[in-house]
Amino acid sequence: MPNYSAELDAVLRALADPTRRMVVERLAKSPAVVSDLLGLFSMTLPSLLQHLRILEDANVVTSSKQGRVRTVSLRPGALDILRVWLGEQRTSAERQADRLGIHLNRTTTKET
């Protein structure tokens, strides 16, 4: 298994919160200004900034500031690690299902 558990853990922790998942879903459409993101939620600006900091620390989003306006973007490829990990899990589960299928075919054939 590749050694990417720290990165995977950070992304999973960041996405464990529904607010942060909603932010990621919104940013998947296009970058957004923090004030626009704030309008999506019933929370204070400091609370939203805390959520954004967690996403940024996990390398899920990036932000840039121009004057007084902070724009947040989904980092390209940020969720690829999830796809890789889930693919590895699915492959393992598929192998188990294949073995079960073979076993069931053998036992069914013996009984008939």
Automatic annotation (TrEMBL):
<feature type="domain" description="HTH arsR-type">
    <location>
        <begin position="1"/>
        <end position="94"/>
    </location>
</feature>
<protein>
    <submittedName>
        <fullName>ArsR family transcriptional regulator</fullName>
    </submittedName>
</protein>
<keyword id="KW-0805">Transcription regulation</keyword>
<dbReference type="InterPro" id="IPR036388">
    <property type="entry name" value="WH-like_DNA-bd_sf"/>
</dbReference>
<dbReference type="GO" id="GO:0003700">
    <property type="term" value="F:DNA-binding transcription factor activity"/>
</dbReference>
<dbReference type="InterPro" id="IPR051081">
    <property type="entry name" value="HTH_MetalResp_TranReg"/>
</dbReference>
<dbReference type="InterPro" id="IPR001845">
    <property type="entry name" value="HTH_ArsR_DNA-bd_dom"/>
</dbReference>
<dbReference type="InterPro" id="IPR036390">
    <property type="entry name" value="WH_DNA-bd_sf"/>
</dbReference>
<keyword id="KW-0804">Transcription</keyword>
<dbReference type="GO" id="GO:0003677">
    <property type="term" value="F:DNA binding"/>
</dbReference>
<keyword id="KW-0238">DNA-binding</keyword>
<dbReference type="InterPro" id="IPR011991">
    <property type="entry name" value="ArsR-like_HTH"/>
</dbReference>
<dbReference type="Pfam" id="PF01022">
    <property type="entry name" value="HTH_5"/>
</dbReference>
